[in-house]
Amino acid sequence: MERDQTEELRALQDTLYFIGGKWRIPVINSLCNGNRRFREIERSIPGITTRMLSKELKDMELNKLLKRTVYPETPVLIEYEPTEYCRTFGNIIQEMISWGREHRRVIVEDR
């Protein structure tokens, strides 16, 4: 099977755009680990600001990666959950975690 390098490059660029930035993958990981409320997500990601988390969640909702549910209570309760589409990225994140662990091990052993 002949590979289409132009198409592959476009697909890689789309993926890098999706995961680009410092916070997207940690937010997805937090959501997939069961954190549903804004403050839970925020507490699970050291260093993220409230403003950045808000921006990431809005962008992810626009890109059909999470579902935002508002419960009409007092005070208003908002929960976020990853969509099935978002969960398809879970295996990639797990592979990235495994690769990162192995890479750290290789680097530390060489010192």
From TrEMBL:
Residues 10-108 form the HTH hxlR-type domain. InterPro entries: HTH_HxlR, WH-like_DNA-bd_sf, WH_DNA-bd_sf. Keywords: DNA-binding, Plasmid, Transcription, Transcription regulation. GO terms for molecular function: DNA binding. It holds the Pfam family HxlR. This is Helix-turn-helix transcriptional regulator. It comes from Chryseobacterium panacisoli.
